[in-house]
Design a protein that fits this description.
The chain is mainly alpha-helical. The chain has one domain. The chain is built from three helices and no strands.
Length: 48
C-alpha cells in the first residue's frame, strides 16, 4: 500500500527530490517508526 502511495506522490511532483516524507506521513496519518522506515525505503527504491 505504501509503495503505491509514495509512487503516486512522486508522480505528482515535478522534481522527485522535493518529496517531503514528513508531510507525506502527516497527510496519511502514519505515526510509527516502522511507517517512517517503509516510506523512506520505498522512496529510495523508486528514485534510484
Amino acid at each position: 500500500m505504501i509503495h503505491h502511495l509514495v509512487k503516486d506522490a512522486l508522480e505528482s511532483l515535478d522534481d522527485p527530490t522535493e518529496f517531503d516524507y514528513l508531510k507525506f506521513m502527516s497527510y496519511y496519518n502514519l505515526k510509527t517508526m516502522t511507517n517512517e522506515i517503509m516510506v523512506k525505503e520505498e522512496y529510495l527504491s523508486l528514485v534510484n
